[in-house]
Amino acid sequence: MNKPRAVVYQSTMTPSLILRVLLLGSLFSTSPVTVFAQALVERLGYAPGTKLLIVHADDLGETHAVNAAAIKALQGGTINSASLMVPCPWFPEIADYAKSHPDADFGLHLTLTSERVYYRWGPVAPVDRVPSLVDQNGYFHHDWKEGEPIDAKEVEIELRAQIERALAMGVRPTHLDSHQYRLIMNGKELFDAMLRVAHEYKLPVFVTRDWFADHPYLRASLGPNDIVLDHTVTIEPEIPPKKWAEFYLIALKNLKPGVTEFVIHPGYDNDELRAATRERSTWGSAWRQRDYDFFTSDQFREILAQQKIKLITWRDLARAAEGK
Prior knowledge:
single chain, alpha/beta, 13 helices
C-alpha cells in the first residue's frame, strides 16, 4: 500500500546514517517546524519541548476481531484514539459502542477503497450517484490504478453519506482521516473535497507536517484554523515480526517534541480475521495481533513513563483549537 512518508525508525541504521539524522535534527532545532510544534504544545497547555502522543487505532468496523481488540485496548487506556470505517460490515457494532461511550475519542476513517479480495464493501451513497467509485459489482475498487477517473464531486457525495450515517447511528466523531491515505496522496482536488466536508461538519482532519514535502498542495489548502500535527509514525511491511517491539521502542525513544500520532492496527489473530485477510499478510491478522500485543504491554507503559511522553486525544486538540 502506498502511503505518505511517515517518520519511521529502524534499528538497522548504519553509524553514518545515524550521524546524518542527528545532524539533520540539529538543523531543525530552530526551524519553522519546531516553532509550529512548540506553538501547538503550548496551546494544549504543556511546557515547550513536551512530547505529546496520540495512539490511534485504524480500521474499526472492518471485522469483529478488530472491534473487540480495539475496545479492549481503549478500555486499558494505552490506545486512546481510533477511527471507524462506516461502509464496513461490522460498523453497526462499533457505532453502538461509540454511542454508549460518548467520551471515547472516535473519528471516521473515510473509506473509498475495498482492498481485500474476498471481504468487500461498497459505498454508503447510492451506487448510481458515485459510479466512478465502484467496480462492475458495486463494490469500491480494490485499488486506484494510475489515471483512475475518480470524480471529486462523487467523492464529496460519498463522504457526506458516510458522516451522515455515522451521525444517524449515534456516533459523534472527533476528527476525520482517510483509509489508505487516498484523500491525502491523490492530489489537491480530492484533498480539497475532504477539507470542504470537514469544514462543513466542523471536524479536524488528520494531516501532519511530515507529508508536506511530498504533497505540497496540503500546506497550500490548509487554513490558519486547521489543526496540523507535527509527526506521524507507522510500522512498515519490511519490519520482520521479531523486530516489531524493537521498532516501536526505538520510535518512542526518538520521539520529537510536539504532537505525534502513531497509526496502528490492532486486532485478534483468530479465524475470522485470518479469513478476512488471508490473501496477503500485510495489515493482516498476525500483523494486527502484534500491534495489539505491544500497545497493551507493560513494556509500552514503562517507556511512556521513562521518556516522559504524555498521551493526548483529538478531543484535546479540538479544545485547544477552540481556545478552551
